[in-house]
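Handout, tutorial session.
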Amino acid sequence: MEKEDINIRYEHQNNSNYLVIEDSSEYEDYQYKMLKRNNPEHFLHFFMYSVNGKYGIYYDITSRQQLSKYYEYGKMTMEDVKSICVNISEMVRIAEDYMLDIDHVKIEPRYIYMDVGTKKLQFVYHTRLNNHTFNESLKILFEFILEHFDHSLDKESIVKLYEVYQKVIVGDYDPYNLMRMFGVVTRKKPETDNISDNTSNNIENNTGNNIESNNMESYNRSVEKKQVKTVMPEQIVSDVEEKPDKHDAKNVRIIIAAVLIISGMINLLVPGVIPYNIPSIWSFIGIGAGVGMLTSFKKGKIKRGRTVVVSEKQAIPYSVKADVKEERRRAQQEEHKKEQKENEISYDDICNETMLLSDYMPEINKKKTLNLILQDEELVGDVRIYIRGIQNADNVIHMDKYPYVLGSFDKMSDVVIKAQVVSRMHCCIYHEDFKEDKYFVEDLNATNGTYLNGERLGNHEKKELHNGDILKLAAISFIVEII
């Protein structure tokens, strides 16, 4: 929360844009003098003033985009998150070199400014703006990241981001090396005796970047090699379950059957060999019993059937006999037929649910579109307009989605205007209320300004557009057409 006596506003002076933080007390902290004298990386350049008992700081934000606004028009990827963490860690190491308190570095999205081309971040240093600690501000930043992250990406990236967020919540991180939360270890920049030696600092930064990129590559290779096996290969008997320790019983059955057959044959063919007088009928019964035992054993051996090997990642919790599978298949077919009958819709039902064209036409009549018509006669120099990579020949911009960003940077602008006076992200068109057809334009910290009917908009100021208005991007004029 900002203090009540602190005023935050934006100003444009001499083709430069400033974030102005004004207070009623004088700034005497040595940190401001240190920053003003050395202008270190990752900190916004500023100058201080005092007028009529008011003390303020002008932070130069020219040609930079507020992080909260930049990702309002596009989703964040994992590479964007890692880039933010790398920038914050570099800023923390520089703050230590200059003996700055990182709790006074504002890392909330509204106070972080980005160079759109290089993705380099710069931060506001202010000792009175709010009472958030570094840890609290980092939580706010990651809540913003989660809200604007592209959740249509692969599942592993989303899970990894939430793991990192949990580490931020519990404070399990190193502010000097936030990339460690992603499993990447980078070398901490060694301390130097002379912090103003720009040559040594540049060498160290380049070395750190090379080490970081090498660690990123080795980490990615190690992740690719790791595979988790969900199901180990196993063997499942499909027909009959084998019980353990049956070999002895089977051998006894074979012996008994052989004894019955042999003794019966001897008694019939050579009656005098066996001392006992056994009737012939019993000999035939014994031979038949022995043959039957051998026959049943052979059939059981054949029935035991094949063994099915389950491949990896195929989860079969238990073996199912063929007849049980068939019964289940038939039951599923019957249930499917019942569902089809329940889902069948009659012709009368279709007619009753159809929307009448007369009910639909009023909504269509309310829909209007906004077009921007380029004023050719007022152009100075060569101006080319591209919509989704295709040059626009008729010089009319048809709005087909909102918000609609106009600028010279093709990666973030819906309409690319190739002109030296147009900023990379110049302005944005909003359609906030569809039914009432209200359209608004917002200036996006444009260096040469956004004008509506001759009046310049303030930084991030919104104004409503009407049919016939003149919208001017620096020196390029458009007529607003709402039809």
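The second record follows below. Compare its token runs with those of the first.
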Amino acid sequence: MLHSKKIDLKNRNFIVIFMMFITMLLNSCALKPILPTKNYSPIENVSIENLGNGKILFYNYGYYCPTMTCGYTTKMNVKANEISLGQINYGEYFIVELDYGEYVFETVYKDVLKIKRTHKVTIDKDTKVIKLSINAFNEKLKVTNSLPAGINQLYQLQ
């Protein structure tokens, strides 16, 4: 009799731990999107000549994206000086107009945990393209001022 109670208690503990693990696993890749408070500036035929003077293209593309997690762990919420620029996923880009000056960009993405990073960037007349990238060990925001290869294959957020 005492032995069966121990087994039941062990089974119950196992089930509770297993359910917590499954819940954490299912919620680990979900990042709630933030809506942009700044309007995007869509351009029909994107070229480097159409950018600059405050008009900046942000893209999330050009790094290894594993098939199993691509689209789930590659979503990123972006803010510039507390102004929401929205959520961007792998294979997407948006164009936004920003005033010249110093910006603190805040990026949030979720792998197993929610990861929040800040980056300081100076926006001037020559700032044209900013690359956003995520992988399991780091996240980057880098001014490249060059369009990614295959820009026409990416989805433009509007």
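Points raised in discussion: The CA atoms of residues 80 and 105 lie 4 Å apart.
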